[in-house]
Design goal:
The chain is mainly α. The protein has 8 helices and 2 strands, in the order αααβαβαααα. The chain has a two-stranded antiparallel ribbon with strand order 1-2.
Amino acid sequence: MLNYSQDNENTHISNINHYLQLMKMSYKEAVNELQGREECQYDYFNRQSFKNLARRNFKSINKKDRRPNHNKNRSKYSEGLILHHVLENKVENLSYLTSIRNHPDFMYQQKENLVYCNLLEHLILHGLIAKETKNKLGIGGYNSIPAQIEDLYSKEKNNKLNNQEKILLSAIGLEYQEYKIVLAKAKKLRL
């Protein structure tokens, strides 16, 4: 479990170990570990919006492509946590309109099938998916998330982080060089 209470060497070592332990787990074990930290209380999308749009193949009344309304209560972004769709080990990109259209069962969007994670944990989850599916799934997140994290560290170095970016980076709980150690190990997940 990550420790945010102190910013010292022991805390950082503990945080590094948290990430390394996640990488040693199966995808299901890692999800269970993260869900044990905090369960999601809300579905990803508003159920009624999802149901209404599913009837029109996710088109608005004026025939424009449209995703369902997000459930506003689900966000923990202000704590540096994002939501990961647990069933992305079966179906890729479950928050994207194409996937929603191809898999319109609301089950994929239910709170039981979501997990809160920081960006580095999100990368690890996608790495575990890629590893377990032999690179058939999880690759998009696995390839794109490091650039997001690198951008945060770069902005931190140049004192250009906005408040939300500070929170996202703080939720990772590592200095840049420590992050690089974890990233090097995470890159080996899909090999």
